[in-house]
Amino acid sequence: MSVRDMVEKDYYAALGVPKDAPAADIKKAYRKLARELHPDKNPGDPKAEARFKEISEAYDVLSDERRRREYDEARALFKSGRFPGAGGGPGDFGPGFGTGYGPSGFAEDPFGGLGGIFDNLFQRASPGRAPRRGQDIETEVTIPFEKALTGLEATVRIPGAATCPTCNGTAARRGTAPRTCPICRGLGVISRSQGGFALSEPCRECRGKGSIIDHPCPDCHGTGRREREQRIRIPAGVADGQRLKVRGRGSPGERGGPPGDLEVLVRVQPHPVFGREGHNLTITLPVTFTEATLGASVRVPTLDGAPLTVKVPPGTSSGRRLRAKGRGVPKPGGGNGDLIVTVEVTVPKPSELSPKARTALQEFAAAHPGDPREPLLAQLGQA
């Protein structure tokens, strides 16, 4: 791959984000595509593997603020015709570039002070034999609602985070080994002289790896990595959709580089009775018409197996929220949220009324006359 080839690549289009996308959107787009295209999820699919490498290369540049800025400047120069080879043959720097010597007679940077941009950009995009940090890995774990309140140790499956036992991480089929690239001689980059200065670019033969695998390992598909299991501690009070980061548990580094991090997306199963609002538990409690009218002490179910007694004040209407302090979700700094009890007055069906109950309701209506809708109609002048 030549320097021009790399500058012509649209990394934003590869990730499906606009050029002015914030870093958070770029990271989100990469994570989504990486989950869909990962080789472990698409074994034997060369198109998915090629796309995975494409988005990895794009994210490698766009996730770094400095490299992203250099990439944008390089593409701007290329489009303006001021990039080597953009306008004509080798050494053609486009309008405004001549011999490379200024009025002082000394050689000047033909890119107007941006000479380090291209060397930095492409050398770091393909680091050759330099140590390289492993990729961050994202995985998911689903836990029961009750366990989210108490915390637990869970096992998560991590794709591509362990050395493949079949090839011992060489990525080559058993009985074979990677060979040193004959073009770059294991460096992963080659230097070309152009216009009086040198440009480093990834070796097109080995794609910047420094070695060539003629016979990829069939178990890891030439990646040198396999899925592994990891035990992680999930703290009490974790919420649905929360992300937990485990340092150094991602993909292993290359050529002695440090491993990446593991990010676990926690999914909490819904509960048939309880809900959650932040650190508060919620429950809808049915009460009878009599209890709501006269007041009562009623039992409320809890997650710890012991019912809680809550006092319903006289004259309570449907929708009123009662609060039981400290009976909610554990907080990170200590203490618990509350249990929010929403009262729901139940209305019996006519078929459920006995003759005695029906008579009692009729007597109540006669003893308590009045239309509760009168104030509403009066406000609208319709009384």
Q: Mind explaining what this structure looks like?
A:
The chain is of the alpha+beta class and 383 residues long. The protein folds into 4 domains: 125 residues, Helix Hairpins, CATH 1.10.287; 107 residues, Urease metallochaperone UreE, N-terminal domain (HSP40/DNAj peptide-binding domain, Sandwich); 73 residues, HSP40/DNAj peptide-binding domain (Sandwich); 30 residues, no CATH class. It is 26% helix and 23% strand. The protein is built from 10 helices and 15 strands. Helix 3 packs antiparallel against helix 4 and helix 5 packs across helix 6. About 11% of the residues have low confidence.
Biggest sheet strand order reads 10-11-15-14
Number of helical elements: 10
User: What is the CATH homologous superfamily assignment of the largest domain?
Assistant: DnaJ domain
Strand content: 15-25%
CATH topology of the largest domain: Helix Hairpins
Question: What is the CATH first-level class name of the largest domain?
Answer: Mainly Alpha
Shape: elongated
- Give the number of DSSP strands: 15
**Series of secondary-structure elements, N-terminal to C-terminal:** HHHHHHEHEEEEEEEEEEHEEEEHH
Secondary structural class: alpha+beta
Q: What's the rounded overall pLDDT mean?
A: 80
Any idea what the CATH architecture of the largest domain is? Answer: Orthogonal Bundle
Quickly count the domains: 4
Radius of gyration using CA atoms only: 33 Å
Task: Show the helix and strand layout.
Blueprint: H1 3-8, H2 11-15, H3 23-37, H4 46-62, H5 65-79, H6 115-125, E1 137-143, H7 145-150, E2 152-163, E3 179-180, E4 189-194, E5 197-202, E6 211-212, E7 225-234, E8 243-246, E9 262-268, E10 275-277, E11 280-287, H8 289-294, E12 296-300, E13 308-312, E14 321-324, E15 339-345, H9 355-367, H10 374-379
Parallel strand pairs: 1-9, 11-15
Antiparallel strand pairs: 2-7, 3-6, 4-5, 8-9, 10-11, 12-13, 14-15
Helix pairs in contact: 3-4, 5-6
